[in-house]
Amino acid sequence: MTATGYVRPASIAEAVAARAAHPDWIVLCGATDLMVEAPLRPAPVGVVDVWALAELCGIAEVDGGAVRIGAATPWRDVVTSPLIAARAPILAAAAREIGALQIQARGTIGGNVGTSSPVGDSLPVLLALDATVELASPRGTRRVPYRDYPTGYRTTALAADELIVAITIPAAHPGARQLWRKVGTRRAQSISKIMAAALLRVEAGRFVEARIGLGAVANRPIRAAGAEAAIVGAPVGEATADAAAAALAAELTPITDVRSTAPYRLATVQQVVRRFVLEASSPSSPD
Amino acid sequence: MAELQPAGPVGRPVPRVDGVAKVTGAAHYVDDLDLPGAWHGATVRSTVAHGVLDAVDLDPDYDWTDVVVVTAADIAAAGGRNVVTLIEEDQPALVPLGGRVMHVDEAIALVAAPTRARALEARRHVRPRISARPAVLDTDAALRAEVKLYGDDNVFKRFVIRKGHGDDAAFEDAMAGADRIIEGVYPTAAQEQMYIEPQGMAAHWEDGRCFLVGSMQCPYYVHKAMKALLGCDGDGVVVTQAVTGGGFGGKEEYPSMIAAHVALLARKAGRPVKLIYDRGEDIAATTKRHPCVTRHRLGLAADGAIVAIDADVVMDGGAYLTLSPVVLSRGVLHAAGPYRCPVVRIVGRVVATNHPPHGAFRGFGAPQTTFPYERQIDKAARLLGVDPLAYRQRLALRPGDTTATGQELTFSVGSEAVLEAIARAAGPRPARDAVSAGGAPVRRGRGVCFYFHGSGFTGAGEQRIAGRATVALTAAGDVEVRSSSTDIGQGAATIFAQIAGASLGLAPERVRVVDPSTDKVPDSGPTVASRTCMVVGGLVERAARALGTRIAAWAGEHGRGGAPFAEVAAAAAAALGEVAETVQYEPPPGIEWDDATYTGAAYPVFGWAACLVDVAIDLDTCEVTVERCVQAVDVGKAINPMIVKGQIEGGTLQALGWGLLENVLYQDGKVANASMTNCIVPTFADAPDLETVLVEVPYPYGPHGAKGVGEIPMDGPAAAAINAVVDALGVDFDVVPVLPETIAARRDAWDAARRKS
Ligand SMILES: Cc1cc2nc3c(=O)[nH]c(=O)nc-3n(C[C@H](O)[C@H](O)[C@H](O)COP(=O)(O)OP(=O)(O)OC[C@H]3O[C@@H](n4cnc5c(N)ncnc54)[C@H](O)[C@@H]3O)c2cc1C
């Protein structure tokens, strides 16, 4: 990768200005995705390097219980944050399985969102936790619900001059269960064959809230709307678990590629979501 | 019990002589070498699996200044032959105009330019025109021979081994005497070596001589191939091994191809050239383990004894013959397993397809044939309702028994010892059913496996090679070991220093093992076939002893009779100048082999091993966790127990990966997953706690009793792991690899079996 233009902004304002001045330059953060793609692409015209930009880093509580994570926050900080452990444990779980230690030290949440790969491991979690993406441009700041952010295969709602500033995870109901599972090609440095994240809440023996985010089963990270509909309002137990699994079969058409097969992906995501429903059904299991 | 430490350096975990340089970065791999003025090469490759090369067009709009292009025409023009000489000469270095393109990623032309980026750019502007032909992409199609790739039948090589019968009719009679016959078909997949350092080579020419340095296992293979390609004699080319980051067989034959390319580029460019593969190119273009299908019939007497074994082995050799006959040979020679059986028929064929040539990989055909017989034995134990380990103990070959080729086992037979070691280590079976942290049902199983592996070359191979090694006292008073055995990370240099040191009464660090270069070391044979320690180590021991004797004689003549070598070496060197002792391989007595009938002593000696694997299967995702893996290996003598354990642990993990994780995917003859991201090998996170038991049943003709260990750990663990999966789920899996996808596809069958049990 030999770019000719390079700027390392010292603030979000400078970064936004650089972005506006050079809409054809790329944003670079930890470079763990860009470095891999570099040989396959024409060299970028220029680079806006936001790695370690202080205003883009850090994890903080905002708005009475929500958690705001700066786009340039590396996964290691997500893994070790007590706030994340308390509020969004499945984001920490996902972060712990991204690459291995070296990649977690360098790869960032903003980069995962920016690449918007169907196998980005944090993305189903952002769906399940109903996260919001904060985007900045010369026109100001806008907040996009994460579920509207991926628009297709590696395409997103990000405009050419926009910068990802932060991800915000709203406070979940204290009774909600968070569940997460990655099934990868191996135990580390592994791309997901499937992954699933869920937030499920039970009141008086019935599911009252269900959000399920899935990865590697469609051209982008998706919510399992059919399965969610089968769960919400239904009683806890096997029948609902089976209904959710059946709904997945109706709404998903995963593919066969070099990492897995369509039948395996569908069957496994069904098993995993089934297990989520059963786990959330059992009152004894710890949070 | 207090351990008795042996007095000399042998048998001790002496630190690696190359260790510090490697961990500090001081060791220079070929891409680290600073070659002033060197250009960089790149290879133009075929995109079709089979066809005819009509033309190689150079983009007329591209600026070709400072770019050198080499095609097949450059070879003959300089008096060479367009072949990569190995067993046969069927493989060209570059496809000639009008010649046949035989596989995807076959080399067609070469470019070199001042920078790697420029070379890669120029490569895109060289445009081969190929008329595609129908391709042969599996062994069944190859055997139908509608498209002919090699001879009339596409069979590179066929072997038949017969024991205890005259012809097929007599064999079937014997099989008909069986109380029951277990039949199975066992396909095993290709495997990528995935050495940490991709392949690469550098060349420069000086006064008409070609100097090559690179990553390789066998400098003299490259040397031989270059003589034909460049049309020169032995002095015309010097081949030097650079520090090499792993090989596993993958750097046995292919380096000759890269050497050919970089030598041609350097000659035409008139300056040094480096040709370093990136990972994708390395995976796509270089050799892999032969895919194989074995049809196996096991005839059993009512009491469970084996009456007859019938194995039909078909390997996919890929587009050229390369080393396939030898891989097949080792495959068939191990196909009956280490079991007592009076009547054996083994037929092996390796066939031509339009895949890139398959080649050497640790185990060299034996893992492909070990898996089938170890599944069969397991099925037999289950059918008979007997403990699988006890059943193997009952049937195991022992001293006095004969192998499939009629070789009588007389010494260094560790079969009982390794099985006993596993029985002792086994311990209670873990609970069959459990629940994972995420609440998923988990099912456990245990599998065992028993196998053997011939040390050194097959039959009369070692006599044919007639390997030589030198131990010298240099004029400066240093002791040098000179052999062409390469240290590729397996620790060869360290054990040679230990062996020579032991013979001369020197600490290993006082012995220098010189880097192999064809102008400095004799041809000790290739670094393959579990032969380096046993065969070449044996040569080093003899040469060192001869040197010790010579120096002792000189000391006696000069009034210092009986003085230790270390005390008189400096004086002797000052008086005599360099003293070098070179010895040549001599076979142990009583080794007879008949190549025509494939009978007799296939190997001077066998290593023996047994393995136990416990697995846990997540029934939601069908992911298999190896919870425990114990391997007991009879190595004769562990010259360096730390290095030997490293060899066994690495080979075991490679075998578990082959069995449960790895999968080279071919699509239309091209490797579809040519990256480390997608061509999966195990990481440390996938590695179980490996327990290794060293068993030492000495080989009387090996150095200090040592025999081969490099390959044997690769042979069995895949079978043990898959036997464990079968034990857990109660349905058969007869294929390598057994991936989560393989297990999930049969959920209905094992779910039913589980509910019944
Ligand atoms: C060996 C290895 C293993 C990996 N394993 C995993 C894994 O297990 N799971 C997984 O999900 N990923 C994995 N990845 C991919 C990668 O590490 C993650 O996606 C990571 O989160 C990317 O972050 P980054 O900061 O390095 O992104 P970069 O490479 O810097 O950027 C990625 C993309 O996001 C854009 N971008 C970054 N920041 C911003 C911003 N603030 N505003 C606008 N656009 C922005 C960039 O322009 C680019 O398009 C792996 C990568 C490697 C090399």
Quickly count the helices of chain B.
21
Question: How are the strands of the largest sheet of chain A arranged?
Answer: 4-5-10-6-7
Amino- and carboxy-terminal Cα gap of chain B: 45 Å
Bound molecules: flavin-adenine dinucleotide
Classify the helix fraction of chain A into a percent range.
25-40%
How does CATH name the architecture of the largest domain in chain A? 2-Layer Sandwich
Can you tag this structure with a few keywords?
heterodimer; A: 287 residues; alpha+beta; Uridine Diphospho-n-acetylenolpyruvylglucosamine Reductase, domain 3; Enolase-like, domain 1; 2 domains; 5-stranded antiparallel β-sheet; 4-stranded antiparallel β-sheet; 11 helices; 14 strands; globular; B: 757 residues; Aldehyde Oxidoreductase, domain 4; 7-stranded mixed β-sheet; 5-stranded mixed β-sheet; disordered N terminus; binds flavin-adenine dinucleotide
